[in-house]
């Protein structure tokens, strides 16, 4: 995993490029270009750029079209309101952190699962070693390390829609860049959700989905735009497999769905193409698992059907069920019976795995529960029961005004 290092430098080191070159290059950037989300200043408050209630996107892009500075930190004189940058950056931190930002020009919001550091003064970014240098008038230098955990296969579409700037790839551009401010880090809100109170402008998940539609050029805004009901079945090849998948597909077709079966493949790893495919579907069906996060790309009014396997009631609701409605997506839960799970034959009806799945979490913790419920379990769907869920899904998408 890559890291971004932030160094608070004294005046001598901040302005001495020779000494900067002598800094040991301990943290080499070896992950993905999308990590530039974390170090291109002026675009990193992108949520507010696109949807801000008081500042329109065009004004943001005009402001940031001439934001790179020289090594002395002087902003291009074409910027008419340089003080607005300081105000906008201050909205990203609160309380003590905001006071620190106002007093020192630098502050880090360190919360659960996230670290976000903001500088409203000139910074220098060395992309060769992923280090952000911030001026400090203190005697002792300080260092903060941010671990964003971006994926190597991620693309730049979202980044390119946050600013008029071309996104810089550190792997191809290992040089030093100067800006009048920066935001480094990712803010954790919740599981597949946005906390509006933590976002300048109070934006919602529906607005974020609108942004994704524009960024990925998704065709369908609402499920009513899809003429023939289309169903995507997320097929698994290792665990949590549908053992009677062919019979399920036949039944789906008989109900009137055009069925698309998607397994892990190059298509799934290509988010540009896969998001387009998901967006063209009225219904998405899958067993509990990370693949259900793709509900983000469904059109409004679509239906996500989660097959809730044994032992996954809490994570099914928390990660995917409760998050669907804020997106404008209908959620249907198909909770399997023990007879539909391969765990019944493996452990027997009277075993606690079947009789009291929660006991495994309580006594053995997450890892023990995962080993059984996620890694050992496959499903043979009761077609008669499941048909009722699909009929409800079909009714929702054909009469949807959600």
UniProtKB/TrEMBL annotation:
This is Glycosyltransferase 61 catalytic domain-containing protein. The keyword Transport does not apply. Pfam families: Glyco_transf_61. It is a single-pass type II membrane protein. GO terms for cellular component: Golgi membrane. The lineage of its organism: Eukaryota, Viridiplantae, Streptophyta, Embryophyta, Tracheophyta. Its main location: Golgi. It comes from Fraxinus pennsylvanica. The chain crosses the membrane at residues 27-51. The keyword Zinc does not apply. Keywords: Glycoprotein, Glycosyltransferase, Membrane, Transferase, Transmembrane, Transmembrane helix. Residues 190-305 form the Glycosyltransferase 61 catalytic domain. It is found in: Golgi apparatus membrane. GO terms for molecular function: pentosyltransferase activity.
């Amino acid at each position: 995993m890559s890291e971004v290092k932030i160094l608070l430098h004294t005046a001598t080191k901040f302005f001495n490029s020779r000494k900067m070159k002598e800094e040991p290059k301990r943290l080499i950037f070896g992950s993905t270009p999308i990590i530039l989300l974390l170090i291109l200043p002026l675009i990193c408050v992108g949520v507010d750029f696109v949807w801000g209630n008081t500042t329109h996107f065009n004004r943001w892009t005009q402001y940031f079209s001439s934001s790179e500075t020289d090594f002395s930190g002087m902003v291009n004189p074409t910027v008419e309101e340089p003080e607005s940058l300081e105000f906008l950056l201050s909205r990203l931190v609160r309380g003590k952190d905001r006071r620190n930002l106002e007093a020192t020009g630098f502050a880090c919001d360190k919360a659960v699962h996230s670290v976000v550091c903001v500088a409203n003064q000139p910074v220098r970014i060395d992309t060769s070693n992923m280090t952000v240098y911030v001026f400090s008038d203190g005697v002792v230098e300080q260092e903060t390390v941010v671990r964003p955990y971006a994926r190597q296969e991620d693309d730049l579409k979202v980044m390119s829609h946050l600013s008029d700037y071309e996104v810089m790839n550190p792997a191809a551009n290992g040089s030093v860049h100067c800006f009048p401010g920066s935001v480094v880090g990712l803010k954790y809100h919740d599981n597949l959700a946005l906390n509006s109170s933590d976002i300048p402008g109070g934006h919602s998940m529906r607005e974020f989905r609108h942004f994704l539609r524009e960024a990925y050029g998704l065709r369908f805004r609402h499920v009513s735009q899809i003429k023939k009901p289309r169903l995507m079945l997320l097929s698994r090849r290792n665990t949590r497999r549908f053992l009677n998948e062919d019979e399920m597909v036949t039944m789906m077709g008989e109900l009137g769905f055009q069925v698309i079966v998607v397994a892990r493949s190059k298509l799934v790893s290509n988010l540009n193409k896969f998001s387009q495919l998901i967006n063209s579907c009225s219904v998405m069906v899958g067993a509990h698992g990370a693949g259900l996060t793709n509900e983000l790309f469904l059109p409004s009014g679509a239906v996500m059907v989660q097959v809730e396997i044994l032992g996954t009631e809490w994570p099914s609701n928390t990660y995917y069920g409760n998050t669907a409605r804020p997106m404008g997506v209908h959620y249907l839960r198909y909770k399997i019976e023990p007879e539909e799970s391969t765990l019944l034959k493996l452990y027997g009806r009277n075993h606690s795995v079947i009789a009291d799945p929660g006991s495994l979490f309580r006594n053995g913790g997450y890892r023990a529960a995962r080993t059984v419920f996620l890694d050992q379990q496959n499903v043979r769907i009761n077609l008669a029961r499941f048909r009722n869920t699909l009929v409800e899904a079909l009714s929702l998408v054909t009469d949807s005004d959600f």
